Amino acid sequence: MPLFDHFALIARFYDRIFTRVNLEQIHEQLAMPANRLLDVGGGTGRVSGRLTGAQTVIVIDPSTAMLRAAGAKNGLQRASAHAERLPFPDNSIDRVLVVDAFHHFCDQEPAAGELLRVLAPGGRLVIEEPNIELWPVKLLALGERLALMGSRFYRPDAIRRMLEMHGGQVTVHTDDSINMWIIAEKPATA
Ligand SMILES: C[S@@+](CC[C@H](N)C(=O)[O-])C[C@H]1O[C@@H](n2cnc3c(N)ncnc32)[C@H](O)[C@@H]1O
């Protein structure tokens, strides 16, 4: 657990600091449209607040400051919760999104289980995460360690294994940025 909520310090300015987001790519990876989209560690709704194609978008984040900054952006629903304990029934969400947040979770293995537990059969989980195999991300990880943020960056194969353990059918790919994409589908028969 981090000592305090680092994100509270920048919540009000977050969307102005972090402007890079590839909405088209996220939209495509999520295979939109969908009924319910859950953005876990969604913070200010910077990403899901601008995505189209879901009837209901719910942002989950433990930081009340980040959620406050999300306001009611584009009709977003918000709830304060941790990824390790999602307040949703099994198989209830069509799409789950995690952007730049997986390494911030307190405990990634149970969180991976939760992401797949709430996902509906035939649904899709998309994780966009800095790729710790690249040196700029190693530097970022060092910076976050020095700032006592409690982050834990996992290699792509480790995240793949966590999701496969919980029944996800996983593909991993990189793009020309520092990020990797981990896509997990829950078989329709699960
Ligand atoms: C770098 S921000 C990314 C926010 C958003 N996904 C985006 O791309 O704009 C990471 C977010 O993860 C959240 N977070 C930290 N620990 C978490 C946990 N255990 N479960 C869910 N979210 C968490 C933080 O509060 C923060 O809002």
The shape, in one word, is globular
Which segments are poorly predicted (pLDDT under 50) over 5 or more consecutive residues?
A: none
The total count of strands amounts to 7
Order of helices and strands: HHHEEHEEHEHHEE
Small-molecule binders here are: S-adenosylmethionine
Q: What is CATH's topology name?
A: Rossmann fold
Write out key terms for the chains shown.
alpha/beta, binds S-adenosylmethionine, Rossmann fold, 7 strands, about 190 residues, about 25% strand
Please describe what this structure looks like.
By secondary structure, this protein is α/β, with parallel strands linked by helices. The protein has a single domain (26-185), classed as Rossmann fold (3-Layer(aba) Sandwich), CATH 3.40.50.150. Helices cover 29% and strands 26% of the residues. The protein has a 7-stranded mixed β-sheet. β2 (54-60), α4 and β3 (77-79) form a beta-alpha-beta unit. The mean pLDDT is 95. It binds S-adenosylmethionine (SAM). Residues 7, 18, 40-43, 46-47, 61-63, 66, 82-84, 99-101, 104-106 line the site of S-adenosylmethionine (SAM).
How is this structure best summarized?
The chain has 190 residues and is an alpha/beta fold. The chain is built from seven helices and seven strands. It has one domain (26-185): 3-Layer(aba) Sandwich (Rossmann fold), CATH 3.40.50.
